[in-house]
Amino acid sequence: MDIILSGGVVVDGTGSPGFDGDVRVSGDSIVWVGEGPREGAEVVDVSGHVICPGFVDFHAHTDMTALVNPTVESKLAQGVTLEVNGNCGFSDAPILNEEARERARRAYERLGAGLSWSHFGEMLDVLERCGVAVNFCTLVGHANIRREVVGAEDRPATPDEMKRMSDLVSRAMDEGAIGLSSGLIYPPSSYGSTEELAYLSRAVARRRGLYATHMRSESDGLLDSVREAIAVGEQSGAPVQISHLKACGTSNHGKAVRALEMIHEARERGLDVTADQYPYTATCTGLDTLIPAWAHSGGPAAMRERLTNASVRARIRDEISQSLEGGYWRDSGGLESIVISSVTEERNRWAEGQTAAEVAARIGGDPVDALLDLLVEEDFGVGMVHFCLSETDVEAVMRTPWTLFGSDATARACSGPMARGKPHPRAFGTFPRVLAHYVRERGILSLEEAIRKMTSLATERLGIRDRGRIAPGMKADIVVFHPQNVRDTATFADPQRLPEGILHVLVNGRFALRDGKITGETPGQVLRGAA
C-alpha cells in the first residue's frame, strides 16, 4: 500500500525554505509532494514534524560489520539512509593476502560472522544477499591495494607494482567501488608516495570515481598535507575528498581556517576538492598510531618481533616518549588526553573508558612500555579517543557551503557484539547533534542549509541523481523528525545511547524505523559505481 506522510513541513534538501505539504510514496519512490490524490494509501500523521531526505553519512566505517548488525542501529536511529564506507585507506576487499585474511577471519569470528569473499564484487554480492537496512556504497582502500602487491614493507613501489596496483583499483571499481581512499597515517597506505597516489587515482578518474584521503598529517603538517591532497587531484584529474578536516593540538588550532582557504583557492582554479567533518572536538583512532611509522614496516608480525627485541623496543619507546613530551602531543595533554575506547580481549575490558595515563599506571612500570605491552597483548587492536580539537575550527568548517558531514564511525548497537567498548559518541549522535547543537542552539547553520549538506550536496558529490531530495520521481529515502525535540544523547562516558526526536525513517519506501522503533526491515540497496 502507498504511504502518505501528512501534516508536516517539507524541507526538500535543496536549501530552499520549508513549506507545509504532504508526501506520497508508492513502491520505492516519491510520487507527489504538496497535495494530491489520497485514495489507496495509508495516511501517517506527522504534524509538527519536518519531512526531509534521508541523511548521507559521507564518511563511515561500518563496512562488513553490517553482516552482524544488518539494522545498522546507531546510524538508522540518526536518520542515516546511505553510508559511504571503505574510508581511510581500509576496505574489506580485496583481501587475498594470507596474513591479512587470517587477521580478518579472526576479527569476524569475534563478531560471530565469517569471511567468504576475496574480491570486491564478491564482497558486495555477500552484502546484497544478507541485506542491510540502509543504502550502502564503498570506496576501495589504498592499504588493501598496496598490501596485495607491495606487501607491508616501507619502500617505494616498482613500475611493475604500480601497474599491478592500478589494475587492482580498476578491477575494484569495475566491480562496484565508487573510488579510492587513502589513510596516510596508517601503514601500509602511509608508505605510498604522492606520485603513487596520483598514478592510482588516474584509474579512478577514468571511471568517474572519487579519491578520498585521510591526510598524512592533521596536526603540525596539516597544510603540507592539504597541498599533497590537492596535488593528487591536479595530477590525476580525480575529484578529491579530504576526510574529516580538522587541526589537532592547541598549537595548530586555527590551521583549519587556512586549510579551507587553500581548498577554496584550488576550487577557484577549477579543481574539484571538497571536505567532510564530524561535529565533535575529539578524534578516534587506533592506539598503535603512537608507534613510529618505520616500526610498522612488514606488518603486525614484524612489529611484534621488534617489540620483543630489547634494543629496538628501547628505540620505539624513546621515540614515543619524545613525541609525547613535545609539540602536538604535549599541548594536547599527553596521555591524559587519550581515553581507551576499545580492546578485543575480555580480560582487558577494564581499560575501556580509562585514560591512557590511568591504564599505564595500573599496568605499572614505564608508561610507554606499559601501553606497548597492552598493544602486543591485544594484537594491536586497541582503540582510543583523543581530545585535541578546537570548537572554533569545527564551526569554521561547518559554515563552509561545500563541506559535508560524516560520522567517521562504524554502525553500533545497544546490545550484542556491536555494543562492546566505549566508542566515540559520533557513532550514535552525529546528525542529531548537528540539528540540535549547531542549528537550534548555536545557530551556526539554518535548518535548511544543514539538511542540504546532509542530503543533496552529498548525493550530488557521489553522482547519485535519484536520491537526496524530496521531489516526485526520487527514491523514497525519507526522515521525519521533530525540529525542537531532536537531539543526541550519547556521551563519551555513556556512548551507547540512541538519539531522540526522530520519528520515522523510510529507506526505498519502506519503514526501517517507525514511531522511533527499529522495524527490523532491511530495505537498503548496495549502490555500485556512480549509481
Provide keyphrases for this structure:
531 residues, alpha/beta, TIM Barrel, 6-stranded parallel β-sheet, 21 strands, globular
Q: Can you describe what's shown?
A:
This protein is an alpha/beta fold. Among the domains are: 86-128 and 137-281 and 389-409, TIM Barrel (Alpha-Beta Barrel); 286-387, no CATH class. It has helices at 73-76, 98-111, 120-130, 142-149, 159-174, 194-206, 222-236, 255-268, 300-308, 310-325, 327-332, 356-363, 367-377, 391-399, 426-441, 447-454, 456-462; strands spanning 2-10, 19-26, 29-34, 41-45, 50-53, 55-57, 80-85, 135-138, 140-141, 179-183, 210-214, 240-242, 273-277, 282-286, 338-342, 383-387, 403-405, 478-481, 502-507, 510-514, 517-518. The strands form four sheets. Strands 1, 2, 3, 4, 5, 18, 19, 20 and 21 form a nine-stranded mixed β-sheet that branches. A six-stranded parallel β-sheet has the order 9-10-11-12-13-17, with helices on both faces. Helix 8 (255-268) packs parallel to helix 14. The longest helix has 16 residues, at 159-174. It is globular, with a radius of gyration of 23 Å. The two termini are 27 Å apart. The mean pLDDT is 96.
CATH superfamily of the domain at 86-128 and 137-281 and 389-409: Metal-dependent hydrolases
Q: Kindly state the number of beta strands.
A: 21
Unreliable spans are none
What's the CATH C level of the domain at 86-128 and 137-281 and 389-409?
Alpha Beta
Helix content: 25-40%
- The helix-and-strand class reads alpha/beta
Instruction: Quote the distance from N terminus to C terminus.
Output: 27 Å
CATH architecture descriptor text of the domain at 86-128 and 137-281 and 389-409 = Alpha-Beta Barrel
Strand residue content? 15-25%
Whole-number mean pLDDT:
96
Net shape: globular
**CATH fold title of the domain at 86-128 and 137-281 and 389-409:** TIM Barrel
Evaluate the radius of gyration: 23 Å
Number of helices in the DSSP assignment: 17
Tell me about the biggest sheet? 9 strands, mixed
